[in-house]
Amino acid sequence: MSNNHIKRRLPPLGALTAFESSARHQSFSRAAQELHLTHGAISRAVAQIETRLGVDLFVRRNRRVYLTAAGQRLKKTATETLDALSLTVEEIHRHDSGSPFLTISCEPSLAMRWLMPRLGEFRTLCPELNVDLRMAGGPIDLLSENCDIAIRRMDFGVNDDYQITTLCSELAGPVCTTAYWNDHIAQDLSNANWLHSRTRPNAWDDWKAAYGLERITPKSEQHFDHFFYSLQAAQDRLGIAIGSVPLVSDDLKTQRLIAPLGLQPTGYDYAVLTLEDPSQDPRVSAFCRWLMESIDQMNE
User: Fold this and answer.
1) For burial by CB atoms within 10 Å, which of 47, 84, 169, 241 has the most?
2) Exposed/middle/buried for 58, CB within 10 Å: 0-12, 13-18, 19+?
3) What is the DSSP letter of 188?
4) Rounded CA gap, 107 and 112, in Å?
């Protein structure tokens, strides 16, 4: 028999909310404060459920209340259910095209060295949107992670149902400060301390292979957990790192870093991943349009 026509014999949602708050606080008074109701309203709501169920949910003693076994059982289910309802409502609100929230997942190094310094500009252009920026790299399930947009270096496969909007091609090469280049390297990379990233362990090998310099070895080497750490170390004159545009575009423009041997395409692009065409959601469309304009300004 189908369950579609089964009548659910549930207490009113408001009464369950009053019970759950009372059970969580072990107090009708604190539940009343939390829900902006009177103590009497909470007491009546709980009594309504007890009458419906035919069991006591609380033991009332010396102006205090204690959950019975039935109350503990109902509290567990009520809390889980209300939490799930709250989360679903928030997700619907956040990801509706009219929502004031825009959730973005971005490569950590790109976020820290390129996107975050520019987000204030986007906030000025679209003050009605609140950007929830989450730092993550690699493959992503936009639905399960509740993200509207992912900005990624496209060095992995993507589901066919994703929309891919290319931002720019990546360029890479050795970067360091002018002082480090003049004082330590003197046109010979083997004199340098090479800075490595464990998140891009093959960066130096890929660059050497592209230039036919497989046999060159450094004077010393240093390893960091993340790409942005190795770039910061280069900026702090600890050595020379493989840097990439757009991550070091601002540093090159202000000459905090230089690329003395030039930058070459890596064969990878940075792109925006969405579930639908960005034009279908005005929030996503506004952000993507701003991203493209920012990329164009970077290349000027």
Assistant:
1) 241
2) buried
3) -
4) 9
CA distances from 107 to 3, 114, 140, 161, 281 (A): 46, 10, 11, 21, 22
What residue type is 255 in one-letter code?
Answer: Q
Report the C-alpha gap between 290 and 284 in whole angstroms. 10
Fold of 100-300: D-Maltodextrin-Binding Protein; domain 2 (3.40.190)
Evaluate whether 41 touches 18 at the Cβ level (below 8 Å): yes
Neighbours of 161 (CB within 10 A): 8
Beta partners for residue 293, in sequence order: none
Q: Please report, as a single letter, which amino acid is at residue 291.
A: L
Q: pTM for this structure?
A: 0.67
- As a whole number, mean pLDDT of residues 188-217 equals 92
Identify the burial level of 15 via C-beta atoms within 10 angstroms of its C-beta, where 0-12 means exposed, 13-18 middle and 19 or more buried.
buried
Say what the pLDDT of residue 1 is. 42
Which residue type does 123 have? Answer: R
With a CB cutoff of 8 Å and minimum separation 6, the contacts of 255 are: 178
Q: With CA atoms as reference, report the closest residue to 142 among 296, 273, 263.
A: 273
Radius of gyration of the chain measured on its C-alpha atoms: 28
Beta strands 101-106; 130-135: pairing state: parallel
pLDDT tens per residue across span 157-172 = 888 889 999 999 999 9
Q: What is the mean pLDDT of residues 189-201?
A: 93
Q: Confirm or reject CATH 1.10.10.10 for domain 13-95, answering yes or no.
A: yes
